[in-house]
Specification:
With 506 residues, the protein is α+β, with helices and mostly antiparallel strands. It has four domains: 8-107, 3-Layer(aba) Sandwich (Rossmann fold), CATH 3.40.50.20; 136-205, Dna Ligase, domain 1 (2-Layer Sandwich), CATH 3.30.1490; 211-448, ATP-grasp fold, B domain (D-amino Acid Aminotransferase, Chain A, domain 1); 460-504. It contains 16 helices and 22 strands. Bound molecules: adenosine-5'-diphosphate (ADP).
C-alpha cells in the first residue's frame, strides 16, 4: 500500500474530542480544518483550528450529521482526509462511502466493518463464527412475546432485551420474570424504533454484578492487528460510563492475556483498519463475553495513552496515511495507573439530569500526572443541543493507590462554576470502599449512590462560609453577565481575529 502524507485534515466533530484531534494533527505538522454550527462559533475547536467552515444551525441534524455539508467543507478547503472523532458520523458506513467517493480519505475503518459491528446481532453472529464467546442469547430478532419467553426459559431469567441498533446505553430492558415479558418487549421495540429507526430486538442473558472491560485495538486493514491493553469502565449511570481506568483492577495477568487475545482475534476477523475498541462483559465467575465493537476512537482513550505512552490519534492518522501500525505488540507495556473522570453538566442529585449555562469560573488543576481534555473555557456557554460532557480529567500515577490519592487532590483543586456538574459525584466515588478496593461492578451507582444524601454534611462554620461565598459568587456572576452581554460582539471578534491571525501566520 502506498504512503500518502496528509497536508490538511478536516475534523468532523466539536467539543473536547475535536480539540484533542486538532492537537494531535498539529503535532504531526498537518493543517487543520474545523467545522461548526451557529452556537459553536466561539468554541475552542474553532479557535484552535487553522481554518473553520460554518456548516449550519445548532441541531446536529442540520450541521454535524449532514454528510454532504462536511464533505463540501473538506473539498472547499482542500483537505486530504476527514477524522470523524466519536459520535455524529463516526460510525456511519454510508458517510465513509461518500467521503471515499469524493476522493477524500476517511481516518477510520471501512464501511463494511462498520456494517458488521454497527448492528449488535450481526456482530454477535460474526463473533460466534470467529470463535469469540458472546453473551448467551439469540442471534435472531424477536417480535413475539411467547417466543421471547421460550428463549428466556432456555437461557434463564433475568434476561436483557436489547435493540440491535442500540447505542449509548439506550434501548435495553431487564426482564426478571415471564409476566414482565410482553410489556417489556413492546416498550423496548417502541423505544428502539423511535431512537434508532429500527425496532429489532434480541434477547440475551442479563449478567448480574458484572464488570465492563474493553480492549483498545489497532489494525492496519491488511490483516495485522495489535492490542493496546484494557480499560475498566464499570462506573456507569444509565448504562453509560462516567469513570474509566487502566489497567483494570479485576484482571489477573492470565485473564488479561486471554481477553486481549480475544480482542485481537475480533479485529483480525474483520480485517480491521484503524483504532477500535472491543467491549466485553466480565461475569463474577471469571467468564468474559463479547458485547460489541466500537469502530472509532473512544471517549476514554486517554487512560490507555497515559499507561502505554502512546498517541492513538497519531496512530490512526499514520494507518490512514498507509504507514501501517506505528507500534509493535512487543513495544507496548502498561506502566503505572490512570483514571479518567468525565465532567458532565449534569445534576447527580437529580437523577443525573443534564444542565446548561455559562462557565463563569474554571480553575484547571496542574501538577504531575494531570491531563485535562476540554472544550470549555471561562465565559463559554454550554449549549443545550449536544452531549453535556464538558471535559475529561485524566490522572496518572505509579500505582492505583497513588492514582486515587492524586485524583482526590486534583478533584479538590478543580473549580468549576456555572452549570450544575458532577465533580461532587467524582469526589464521592473516590471515598467509596468498593471503588477503592477495585471490587465495584456496573451496579456500583445503583447499589451505593444516594442522590439525596451524597454531598458531605457541613458543620455550622462551613455552612456560613458557603452562604457568604455563594452570595459573593452570585454578585460577581451578575456583574460578569452584564459585562459579557455588553461585550459579546467584542469577544467574538477577538476570538475570530485570533484564529485569522493563526491562519495567516501559517
Ligand atoms: P451500548 O451500545 O448502548 O453502549 P452495550 O451493549 O455496550 O450497549 O452495553 C452497555 C452497558 O450495558 C454495559 O457496559 C453493561 O453495563 C450493560 N450491559 C450490556 N449487556 C449486558 C448484559 N448482558 N448483562 C448485564 N449488563 C449488560
Amino acid at each position: 500500500m502506498s504512503v500518502k502524507k496528509f497536508n490538511k485534515v478536516l475534523v468532523a466533530n466539536r467539543g473536547e474530542i475535536a480539540v484533542r484531534i486538532i492537537q494531535g494533527l498539529k503535532e504531526m505538522g498537518i493543517g487543520t480544518v474545523a467545522v461548526y454550527s451557529d452556537v459553536d462559533r466561539t468554541s475552542l475547536h474553532v479557535m484552535m483550528a487553522d481554518e473553520a467552515v460554518f456548516i449550519g444551525s445548532a441541531p446536529a441534524s442540520e450541521s454535524y450529521l449532514v454528510a454532504e455539508k462536511i464533505i463540501a467543507a473538506a473539498l472547499e478547503t482542500g483537505a486530504d482526509a476527514i477524522h470523524p472523532g466519536y459520535g455524529f458520523l463516526s460510525e456511519n458506513g454510508p458517510f465513509v462511502d461518500a467521503v471515499e467517493k469524493a476522493g477524500i480519505i476517511f481516518i477510520g475503518p471501512t464501511a463494511e466493518s462498520m456494517a458488521v459491528m454497527g448492528d449488535k446481532l450481526s456482530s454477535r453472529r460474526k463473533m460466534r463464527a470467529s470463535g469469540v464467546a458472546v453473551v448467551p442469547g439469540t442471534d435472531e430478532a424477536v417480535t413475539d412475546p411467547e417466543e421471547a419467553k421460550t428463549i428466556a426459559e432456555e437461557i434463564g431469567y433475568p434476561v436483557l432485551l436489547k435493540a440491535t441498533a442500540g447505542g449509548g446505553g439506550k434501548g435495553m430492558r431487564v426482564v426478571g420474570e415471564p409476566s414482565e415479558m410482553a410489556s417489556a418487549l413492546r416498550q423496548t421495540m417502541g423505544e428502539a424504533g423511535a431512537s434508532f429507526g429500527n425496532d429489532a430486538i434480541f434477547v440475551e442473558k442479563y449478567i448480574v454484578g458484572p464488570k465492563h472491560i474493553e480492549v483498545q485495538v489497532l489494525g492496519d486493514g491488511q490483516g495485522n492487528a495489535i492490542h493496546v491493553f484494557e480499560r475498566e469502565c464499570s462506573v456507569q449511570r444509565r448504562h453509560q460510563k462516567v469513570i474509566e481506568e487502566s489497567p483494570s483492577p479485576s484482571l489477573t495477568p492470565e485473564l488479561r492475556e486471554e481477553i486481549c487475545a480475544a480482542a485481537v482475534q475480533t479485529a483480525k476477523s474483520i480485517n480491521y483498519r484503524g483504532a477500535g475498541t472491543v467491549e466485553f462483559i466480565l461475569a463474577p465467575n471469571g467468564e468474559f463475553y463479547f458485547l460489541e465493537m466500537n469502530t472509532r476512537l473512544q471517549v476514554e482513550h486517554p487512560v490507555t495513552e497515559m499507561v502505554t505512552s502512546t498517541d492513538l490519534v497519531r496512530a490512526m492518522v499514520k494507518i490512514a496515511q498507509g504507514e501501517g501500525i506505528c507500534y509493535t505488540q512487543e513495544q507496548l507495556h502498561q506502566q503505572g495507573w490512570s483514571m479518567e473522570f468525565r465532567l458532565y453538566a449534569e445534576d447527580a442529585g437529580n437523577n443525573f439530569a443534564p444542565s446548561i449555562g455559562k462557565i463563569v469560573a474554571l480553575t484547571i488543576p496542574q501538577g504531575p500526572g494531570v491531563r485535562l481534555d476540554t472544550g470549555i473555557y471561562e465565559g463559554y456557554d454550554v449549549p443545550i443541543h449536544y452531549d453535556p460532557m464538558l471535559a475529561k480529567l485524566i490522572v496518572w500515577a505509579e500505582n492505583r493507590e497513588l492514582c486515587i490519592a492524586r485524583s482526590k487532590r486534583v478533584l479538590e483543586e478543580m473549580v468549576l462554576h456555572g452549570p450544575v456538574h458532577n465533580l461532587p459525584f467524582h469526589r464521592w466515588t473516590l471515598d467509596q470502599p468498593a471503588f477503592v478496593d477495585g471490587s465495584y461492578t456496573t451496579g456500583f451507582v445503583g447499589d451505593f449512590f444516594d442522590g439525596a444524601n451524597y454531598l458531605p454534611e457541613l458543620d455550622e462554620g462551613q455552612t456560613q462560609a458557603l452562604i457568604a461565598a455563594a452570595s459573593l459568587f452570585e454578585a460577581m456572576r451578575r456583574t460578569e453577565s452584564t459585562e459579557c452581554a455588553n461585550n459579546e460582539s467584542d469577544i467574538t471578534g477577538w476570538q475570530l481575529s485570533a484564529r485569522r491571525t493563526m491562519t495567516n501566520n501559517r
